[in-house]
Amino acid sequence: MKRFIRKWLDRIAQPYLNEITRINATAPATQIAQKALFQQYQTYAHTGRLPNIRTTGYRVFSQFDEDGIFVYLFALIGFGTCRFVDVGSGDGIMSNCANLAIHFGLRGLFVDGNSEALALGRKFYAAQPNTFLYPPLFVNSFIPERNYANCGRSCWHCCV
Description:
The chain is mostly helical. The protein has helices at residues 2-25, 28-47, 66-77, 96-104, 115-126, and strands spanning 83-87, 107-112, 137-140.
């Protein structure tokens, strides 16, 4: 019975929970807070009072703490003309690059072999005010596996 209820809740409730999470992740307040944190890190860098990178992680779109770590690192090195490429991205929504695209205006490319997931990502980014004009590119492709064991050498050019 417990398993049945859990499956039922996953099927019924999870889409709503996902939508609530996405609304919070794309809220203007989230962007404002991250940009303020970005500027704070830059101030810390100029005064030599940088926090330990291990304490900077947080999740907005990423699966782990990459969103916060990227904000910290880019505050130190700058964005310049950065682009991102996310291979094996799924829908590109639950991705460490999604935060960079939506809240920091980076352009980039999501690559995945699941065309349905990519269609969901295209729809999501087309509806976002910050990526409406320049949505990320989505490429439906598989990265082929190679058999490197036949080479017999352990050198970098065998893996290219």
